[in-house]
Amino acid sequence: MADNLRKHGHKLVVCDPVAANVDKQVQQGATAAANAREVAEQCDTIITMLPSTNAVESVYLGKDGVHEALRSEHLLLDSSTIDPIFTKKLSAELHERGATFVDAPVSGGVAGAQNGTLTFMVGGEPEEFERVKPLLSAMGKNLVYCGKSCKLKELSWARKSWG
């Protein structure tokens, strides 16, 4: 996903607990950040793709999280397949603090991410969907707008939970 964003001219600030992932992106011209707060200090747009609800909560609301540097101009885009109830709470909290939060889980696997052919199921206000289209189009081919509350996230979460 990061490679495709860069190919479309986006400058990246990256943070990942796996140092090799950060090193690869830095070698391609990205800037490394020590934590999510540093990313939020340097960027107006933040895209997350994390493995669990706990990881998303930590990145956005934990120590050195996005919330510590949150600004009203922030566009926060989460593509993690996580608990939809938590996503709704996180969205409400971040919107209340003035930021834009868009939920955009993906389908397409590693090959789709590498080839820029992911399908994004996007939840948010119509104007938020329009705002994220250029970013999502750099990483995927199919953008499905699901309305304010993304019901497809609930289906995706259920599928992940069932194995």
UniProtKB/TrEMBL annotation:
Annotated metabolic or biological route of this protein: Amino-acid degradation; L-valine degradation
Pfam families: NAD_binding_2
E.C. numbers: 1.1.1.31
GO terms, molecular function: 3-hydroxyisobutyrate dehydrogenase activity; NADP binding
Catalytic reactions of this protein: 3-hydroxy-2-methylpropanoate + NAD(+) = 2-methyl-3-oxopropanoate + NADH + H(+)
Record bears the keyword Zinc-finger: no
SUPFAM superfamilies, per database record: NAD(P)-binding Rossmann-fold domains
Enzyme class: oxidoreductase
Keywords: Branched-chain amino acid catabolism, NAD, Oxidoreductase
Domain of life: Eukaryota
Leader peptide range in chain numbering: none
One of the GO biological process terms: L-valine catabolic process
Coiled-coil boundaries: none
Domain 6-phosphogluconate dehydrogenase NADP-binding per the UniProt entry, residue ranges: 1-147
UniProt record similarity statement: Belongs to the HIBADH-related family. 3-hydroxyisobutyrate dehydrogenase subfamily.
Protein name per its UniProtKB record: 3-hydroxyisobutyrate dehydrogenase
Organism: Phytophthora lilii
